[in-house]
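step: validate -> pass
step: tokenize input -> pass
step: predict -> running
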Amino acid sequence: MKKNLIKLIGVMIAIIVVLSSCSDSTEEADPCQNGPELSIDNITISIEGQSNGAIEVSANNGTSPYMYSIDGINFQNDGSFTDLEANDYTLTVKDANNCTVSEMATVTEVPEVSYASEIRPIIDTNCQLSSCHGDNQGIPSFATYADVSANANGIKFRTGNGSMPPAGPLPDAQVQLISDWVDQGAPNN
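step: predict -> pass
step: emit ->
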């Protein structure tokens, strides 16, 4: 009888051990707990009255491949959205587990800036002087559109930080015109 009691106790201990090692939880880990993250990489302005803005987004984390949407309904393989009018957009990335994350982005509208009637007069009055970007050796000439457009990013940077022209900073409105013109691709218009 003592042997049977010891066997019975051994069986009961084995059952308790097996039961305690089983999990009561039937829940699986949430695949979206470490879901994708959305990064807005670039927003291009839209020129007034046109649909030429753009937004570029990318994703990381989550499970690739990623799909991208600008309306939450239609998804595409890449994160480039073009031909956008000025507006607020909800961008969404969806990973292979159908986990999604969204962020808002705004394409702003600026008036079209004319090189001939707005930028060229600023250059002629403030930069294309014999003591600066005129005939001065070693400093780029701003005599032609090609000269100005080749240096457009530098002009935007230097007028933006007030280091050009040397006579003193341009008025804010002129600095903004130059910035907008460069952001519009420095067109010869």
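step: describe -> The chain has two domains: 36-110, 115-183.
step: cleanup -> pass
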